[in-house]
Design brief:
Layout: H1 2-10, E1 18-22, H2 26-38, E2 41-46, H3 49-57, E3 62-65, H4 72-80, E4 84-89, H5 94-102, E5 104-112, H6 127-132, E6 136-139, H7 148-156, E7 166-171, H8 172-180, E8 190-195
Parallel strand pairs: 1-2, 1-4, 2-3, 4-5, 5-6, 7-8
Helix pairs in contact: 1-2
Length: 196
């Protein structure tokens, strides 16, 4: 739901635009699916090839492995021939936040969806670029209930297929370990707890 609001309501993504999604966890993959359904060209950025492969299966036209390129923002600018119109930091890390801003074209929009917490709460935003390129920086969290109908309509029409986001299902007992290791999990897709 956060991804829907970020892409549709805040990003106002439209057909043919370039959208960069930094971080291919559940939120990022949802954003990729939604932007693709609208008709945008999506570039997925992550450091895990399995997650990038899942992003491609959901419609990303290009992927960038942040560990395999010298400069993530330059890679996005090159692929999109000038930079993304909209870029989302779905992860919430100073590096992905800064890369997201740097990967934008003039008049682009950076949407911060991933939470930046504790000692990572204040990334060094390249304000010279923000001012020179007249960029927008938008914070995003949650979605208002009155917007659910638009998202559900896209599901009913088949444009959005959230079941494709499913990575694995686990029992309630297995969820303890999953929560403890959440920060180092590498399974692509969303993990769902199915019960006892």
């Amino acid at each position: 739901m956060t991804s829907f609001r970020a892409v549709v309501d805040q990003g106002k993504v439209s057909v043919g635009q370039w959208v960069a999604v930094h971080g291919c966890g559940g939120v990022g993959l949802s954003a990729i699916m939604i932007a693709t359904a609208i008709g945008a060209n999506v570039i997925a950025i992550d450091i895990d090839d399995a997650k990038l492969e899942m992003a491609r299966s959901l419609g990303a036209v290009a992927t960038v492995n942040g560990l395999k390129v010298a400069d993530v923002a330059e890679a996005v600018i090159e692929i999109s021939k000038g930079g993304a119109h909209v870029s989302l930091d779905a992860l919430g890390h100073p590096m992905t936040c800064v890369n997201s801003v740097k990967s934008l074209r003039k008049l682009g929009k950076h949407i911060q969806v991933g939470l930046l917490l504790a000692d990572q709460a204040n990334p060094a935003i390249p304000m010279a670029k923000v001012i020179a390129d007249e960029l927008e920086i938008i914070g995003s969290h949650g979605m208002q209930a009155h917007r659910y109908d638009a998202m559900l309509a896209m599901m009913m029409s088949g444009k959005l297929t959230p079941e494709k986001l499913l990575g694995r299902t686990i029992s309630l007992e297995q969820s303890i370990e999953a929560l403890i290791t959440m920060d180092s999990a590498t399974t692509p897709g969303v993990t769902v707890v199915t019960g006892f």
